[in-house]
Every structure is written in C-alpha cells, then in structure tokens.
Amino acid sequence: MQASWNGQVIAESGDIVKVEGNAYFPAEALSGDCFRPSSHRTVCGWKGEAHYYDVVLDGQVNANAAWFYPDPKAAAEEIRGRVAFWKGVTVSNG
C-alpha cells in the first residue's frame, strides 16, 4: 500500500495492519524527510495516547496528518511502531 499527499508518495509497504478502517504502516516505511514531530496529542480509550507528525513537502505543511502510538495499551499492541494517516493523505493499493 501507499500513502501519498500532493501527488508524492510519503510511505509504502506491503506490511499493513488495519484498525478501525485505518491502515497502519511500519515506521520504517515512511519517507523520513517528509515528516517532522508535532506537539499535538490525543487520547483513545483503548489504544492510548496518540502522537502526531506534520507532513512537509515542497514548503507546504499538512499539520498533524500522521499519527502513532509510541506506547499503546495492550489491546492495541499490534500498532506499536506503526503510523496512520488522515487530513488529505491518500492511502491506496499503489
């Protein structure tokens, strides 16, 4: 699967975990130069605290467009080390 924004692939992997309709990519599948840490946080009752990345391409910023759970609760252990997308990032079968 691929994740893309503004026509550019920002993550690609065949190793995807789907949770609640979201495709979680392995962290190593991300194009490292397209992401910067964000201070934004949210909490999910069964997954834990989500941390976010901004997606940055060609001087444009998609704030908090990627999220991950650095220390997921036991019920969500399968998404540890994985990143999902939203806010205009397209996830497709490539």
How large is the share of residues in beta strands? over 45%
Most strands sheet:
6 strands, antiparallel
Protein structure class:
mainly beta
Strand order of the largest sheet: 3-4-8-7-6-5
Straight-line N-to-C gap:
5 Å
CATH superfamily: Domain of unknown function (DUF427)
Order of helices and strands: EEEEEEEEE
Number of strands: 9
The CATH topology: Metal Binding Protein, Guanine Nucleotide Exchange Factor, Chain A
From the 3D coordinates, which CATH architecture would you assign? Beta Complex
Shape: globular
Q: Could you list the spans in which at least 5 consecutive residues all have pLDDT below 50?
A: none
Helix count, DSSP H or I runs of 4 or more residues: 0
Cα gyration radius (Å): 12 Å
CATH class: Mainly Beta
- Helix proportion: under 10%
Number of domain units: 1
Estimate the mean pLDDT confidence.
97
Structure in words:
The protein is an all-beta fold and 94 residues long. The protein has a single domain, classed as Metal Binding Protein, Guanine Nucleotide Exchange Factor, Chain A (Beta Complex). Helices cover 0% and strands 56% of the residues. The protein has no helices and 9 strands. A 6-stranded antiparallel β-sheet has the order 3-4-8-7-6-5, with no helix packed on it. Strands 2-1-9 form a 3-stranded antiparallel β-sheet, with no helix packed on it. Strand 1 and strand 2 (8-12) form a beta hairpin. The termini are close together.
